[in-house]
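**Backbone description:**
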Amino acid sequence: MAKLPSFDPRDVPVQAVDSHLPKPRAASLEPQALIARFASQHDWTPELRKEAKFIEREPAHASVLIPLVKRDRLHVLLTLRPTHMNSHSGQIAFPGGKADPEDRDAVATALREAQEEVGLEPGYVQVIGTLPIYTTGSAFIVTPVVALVDPGFHLQPNADEVADVFEVPLDFLMDPANHRQHVVDWGGEQRRWLSMPYMDGSTERFIWGATAGMLRNFYRFVLD
């Protein structure tokens, strides 16, 4: 079974903060701008594609939904995984999971998993594109599916798979001043990863690992 390295990511020192990197224009984070961006198929280079492997298992294809909720500004809907989960327990994640044989494609997997995990009905969801495949250290080959979500939905989280559901402003996650670099020695090698901690009232939402990696690629995608 997939187990995360035995360390608390909050205890790993910050090596650098990426405040020197350019910040996307606010206009580039508007719904129509994102739709046009995906439609244009412009050339860009993802920064992160594959994590250092930390488990021996057969690779499995999976999809996640990056749900951009249309509020006064776009917000990203995220989940907190329960601590009893075999894979990535206790981590913040996008709704998503392994592909089923019945799924016609990666988009179908993401939509099905989002409905099963948090009760997000597909009727509220407009898929606008996908980001490059991201391979996790637990051997999941993940397709991130980006979608706009109309407000008015009523979530019904599956308690077996989701401990909490919350939203973070997209402009916070796309600001590199909120991207922190970490390095930890584990399993005889250095493991590098990003974190994007967000204060949700009095609660710290510690976004890191694969979720932060896919968000970093999204940041690269929206840059001019």
